[in-house]
Amino acid sequence: MPLAPANQAQLIRSCQKDDYYRTVLRNNANEAVQTLAGSRLWLHWRKEVELLSDVTYLTLTTLSGFQTLGEEYVNIVQVDPSKRQIPSRARRSLFVLFHAFFPYLLDKLLVCLENELEGSQDGRRRTGSAGWGLSCWLRLWVQRGVCLLTGEQRRVWLSAVGIAQQTVALVHRLHTTLFYLSSSFYHLSKRAAGISYLRVEGLRGDDASIRTTYRLLAAVSLLQLLGSVALQVGSFRQRQRARQEWKLFRSLRSVSPSQVSSPAPSAARCILCLEARRNSTCTPCGHLFCWECITEWCNTKVGLAS
Q: How far apart, in whole angstroms, are the C-alpha atoms of residue 245 and residue 239?
């Protein structure tokens, strides 16, 4: 029977079926570890337990040269870029590396960087418990690097970590949009490994309509993605503008010695910095603040919301 490229609907159904069985395996593994080792150790090693569950599922299926349960459900097979043979063991191992290990390591690194940079900015020193796990070694390595940075460099790195986290999400959404257009690779890991799919059954009459429908969905997804990028860029520019205005007004601050020696009445003080108001600014609720204090406060709230 001639083989034909799998369409988007088949690949999505296959992925959903695999995700279901991987979730069942994760839940069973988490329940077993929590029962045997206790809730405290389970919470500490939960990510590693889920990683081990995913690697076990992929080892028993893809890495062993068999179809996954989702692939068997929709009757599709993996092929290499030549479309003539199944992927080699090296190519399948590369897929497992990118699909399971790389997201785990990237998430660990970004979270650890963010925690250490925020702790150093707040003046707190995070002293994690000694251990031999990857998190402990990664935390020690990041702490050594953060200690070498100046205060300004730490702020820049903290912003870069936030941008990296948002970029990862945007790349996944862009890749999904490309999948809706071409139906080639549903996962970034399969694109990196060069693994695509062929369906065993013959070409069906509704295949063209399915691909057309997903192309329309790709157009909608692309518009949504562009809108999200525009909003994030606008938010970033607004935060930069507020930070520049705060620095400008702070540099223009002039306080005479007489003003310093005489305490200001409580009614003339800013309730944020508890000092005499400088460049008084009124909010819609009627309260008065220093211009630099209220802009910095708004900047902080916008950063947390985004």
A: 10
